[in-house]
Amino acid sequence: MKIQVFLRQCFYSPNAQFCDRDRPVWFDKEKIFMNLKRTINPELADLHIIYDSHFGTLHETFLSQEENVEIVNCGTEASSFLKTLEIVEQKKFGDDTIIYFLEDDYLHRENWCEALLEAYSLPIHYVSLYDHLNKYILDGYSNLLARIFITKSIHWRTVPSVCNTYSAKMGQIKEDLDVHKHFSSSSLNGISQDNLKFLRLAEMGRGLVTPLPGYSTHCDRFLSPTIDWTKYI
Question: What is the mean pLDDT of the chain?
Answer without folding.
Answer: 93
